[in-house]
Structure prediction request, 255 residues.
Amino acid sequence: MSEWLVLTIAMASACAVVLTIAVLSNRRLADDDDPSETPDVIEYMTMMIGVVYAIVLGLAIAGVWEGRSAAQESVRLEAQALHEVSARSAVYPAEVRDRIRTDVEAYVAHVIGDEWRSMTDHGSLTEEGTRLLDRVRADVTEYKPRTDHEGQAYQPLVDQVAAVDDARGARGQNAGATMPGVVWFGLITGAVVTVGLIFTLQIRRTFRELLLAGLFSVLIAFLLFLIWDFDAPFGRGISATTAPFVDLFPHAAER
Prediction:
């Protein structure tokens, strides 16, 4: 199901529920009911709970956005380190250089294809990706430099392969959801409480009051959807992309 369809259904459902409850509650009010009689303490508590929940929502959005940014940064670092391996291997003999570049491109093609789908669907890396990276590492580390120039390039190449491995590990750690279940329980419970408290203010069936109640519920639904969408850095609409790999290895992307 499309993320935008999920968002539309969530906002429409939240709005419909709130407006239905508001209308049904209004029918049960007595003719002499006076909305101005709402105690000041209720208005104060409603305002304070709304403020506290807004802070919690803001922190949750900031947290999942930071996780998404970290995931994208790990992809960039991995792609850049692979590019350095491919570029610095130019000092090696043609046979060794071509083998390194071929294995690097094979690894990149797997990452942006099968491994990316595995992260999206299962939140994990693949064994084939590990095997291909090990092959790149073997290409670099098992070659014995024959000249001083090759010797000077050897250690930086080894370091870049280590950087690839480190960035790949970070990418794997960021592949799954980042928000614990208990946090989701608090967010959803807080949304129900915050929206429910607006009924203590004795909403009437005027267009203005119903519109504001509906817009408030839609806003809460949208913010929760935003957190849910960011919570899977590689799995949903607003997620990390393969752009760094595609930009640096256009031929591998065409495989």
